[in-house]
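Course assignment 3, question 2. Fill in each field.
Student: A.L.
Task: Predict the tertiary structure for the chain below.
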Amino acid sequence: MLRFMFVGDSMTIGSAGEHTWRYWMWRHLCATHGAPFKIVGPRETLYDKATEAPTSYEYAEPDFPRRHLAGWGEGWQHLTPLIADAVKADRADILLVSLGLIDLGFYTNAEQTAANVARFVAEARRANPRVALAVLPVIPNVRAEDDPDFATEVARFNELLAKTVADLDTSASALLLASPPTEYDIHLDTYDGTHPNEHGERKLAAAFAAAMWEAWGLGGPPE
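Answer field:
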């Protein structure tokens, strides 16, 4: 039985009242995987904007496996120290990772962030030498649209991320770079220029689904 772990920042944990793209990914796997699987992770809450803490269970659709390793304001540098213990504790087989915007926005430049990606992969493999990772690049966001220097940094990181994934991919522990969501429009697919609304959530899930189907033959093509 495959064990999937969602790893990410605010776009992955989501906030009170949302489905999250995790829900749509779970639905896709239920419809296409054709074998038992499990969603794992050390956390299960949403972010509560009223209390500014990850304490909410108010999912738009609460009846699904809600485990994850995601945090509002957390990036590669925050989750790298946690990933080995999380993978080991839950025996995770596949990590679906969406990180980078927070790092570039507040903590590290493109080169430093790419170095943290490599450390993250090493830590995950330390816990499970056969772990597989599907990684999403930093997707369109309002800061990149409004700040040309930041947009350049995002583009640079995405180039380095592609190289890092290619360099670290092995037959024993596959790394996969998902393509950005198709026709993702921050004015239509987010509620604030960064965080996905339901349209955006579905597109994020579809990006991972398409990548795993095309590269690994896992699941099926997105709807």
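Instructor remarks: The beta strands are 2-8, 37-40, 46-48, 53-56, 69-70, 94-98, 132-136, 175-177. The radius of gyration is 16 Å.
Grade: pending
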